[in-house]
Design goal:
The structure is a single chain. Helix 7 runs antiparallel to helix 8 and helix 8 packs across helix 9. It is globular and about 75 Å long. The chain is 42% helix and 18% strand. The longest helix is centred in the first third of the chain and has 35 residues. The chain has two domains: 283 residues, Collagenase (Catalytic Domain) (3-Layer(aba) Sandwich); 60 residues. It is built from ten helices and nine strands.
């Protein structure tokens, strides 16, 4: 009888071991995937041993009423954010020094382009090198950097949205049932700090003459990624040329010189050629004031959309596939991504037709 009991117990344990192993594998997989959401450190962690910067930029901060209402201690938070940016910029021999933080008596507008115009009217930048306007967070979860920040090219002015997103936090917390809430909160805080830093460095890069990059880990990539940790070699060359220029007015010519040297080695990329053309016009006009080019991508409101049909597909276990007809052909994939996020889609594909665009928004589960 006792032997029978042991045999039964052995059979039960053996049969359950497969389930137990699968359960452990699932836990390990979730923990690994959750850790992959944690942002990268600056490339080679160069900021930890870089010498003190020899070039400084004075910064004046303006926080509008919407931004101030969303932060408990906005001055301390912004100070910490600038410290992280300065640490990341130290390898490029630049230090940011906050001269003052002021309350901006206005509400955020419907778009960052409008906010940037208002910031320029509010503060021309006398006595400082950089003017930063802080406005409300984006109403949708988006990876488009220019829906999070906006800056003049080789100018002085930047507008930045608040980055703390309840929707993004809830999405992270709800994606990993086998990972502790404490760990997921920690990962979200790390991602938040990284996004604040990376987006500001992206916009600062525009002030210093950098152009959009193609590598996903380049600070100048047009879409945010937690893996962004350095400027590409080409953008670093432009940034250093601007930083080491004798004064702000000489930076455009220093950047143009680097682009013209680059053009002798290889054809310029479209963004590089566009910047070089604008800087040649600036140089030929012999202007005495610093150049302040408009951002390449105007942030516009998403185009009106009209739902045409809902279809079903088995591709990658798609639960729903929506085809959207745009009432204009000007919208891009990056402009559609917030719409996709809002309806729970994971990806966007645009098929251009004659006088409109058909956008397929896929939801894969």
């Amino acid at each position: 009888m006792l032997l029978h009991v042991w045999v039964v117990a052995f059979v039960v344990i053996f049969s359950l071991s497969g389930c137990t192993t699968a359960w452990i594998d699932a836990i390990v997989a979730q923990h690994r995937h959750a850790e992959a959401q944690r942002p990268d450190a600056p490339r080679e962690d160069r900021s930890s041993f870089a010498p003190p910067a020899t070039h400084r930029r004075l910064v004046r901060i303006w926080a509008d009423s919407d931004y101030r209402a969303s932060a408990v201690d906005w001055r301390a938070a912004v100070g910490a954010q600038l410290d992280r940016v300065t640490s990341s910029m130290r390898p490029y021999d630049l230090e940011l020094v906050v001269s003052e933080m002021r309350e901006w008596d206005r509400r955020s507008a419907s778009g960052l382009a409008t906010d940037l115009e208002a910031l320029v009217r509010n503060d021309e930048g006398a006595g400082v090198d950089v003017v930063v306007g802080l406005v409300s967070a984006s109403p949708v979860v988006t990876s488009s950097v220019h829906h999070l920040g906006y800056a003049q090219v080789l100018g002085k002015h930047i507008v930045m949205r608040g980055m703390d997103s309840a929707a993004e936090r809830d999405a992270l917390l709800g994606s990993y049932s086998m990972v502790s809430r404490e760990k997921l909160e920690e990962i979200y805080r790390d991602r938040l700090r990284h996004k604040q830093t990376a987006v500001m460095i992206h916009e600062l890069g525009h002030l210093l003459g950098a152009v959009h990059g193609v590598a996903s880990d380049d600070y100048m990539h047009p879409s945010y990624s937690p893996h962004q940790n350095a400027f590409s070699a080409d953008n670093e060359e432009l940034v250093r040329a601007s930083i080491t220029a004798e004064d702000h007015k000489r930076a455009p010519r220093a950047v143009l010189a680097k682009l013209e040297e680059r053009a002798k080695r290889r054809p310029l990329l479209p963004d590089e050629e566009e910047l070089a053309t604008a800087l040649r016009r600036y140089a030929s006009a012999n202007q005495s004031t610093p150049v302040a080019l408009a951002p390449k991508q105007d942030e516009t409101e998403l185009q009106p959309l009209q739902l045409i049909s809902t279809e079903q597909s088995d591709t990658c276990h798609i639960k729903s596939l929506r085809r959207i007809k745009l009432l204009t052909d000007s919208a891009t994939v990056s402009e559609l991504q917030p719409v996709a996020t809002r309806i729970g889609a994971d990806s966007v594909a645009v098929d251009r037709k004659q006088d409109h665009a058909m956008a397929t928004l896929l939801r894969c589960r």
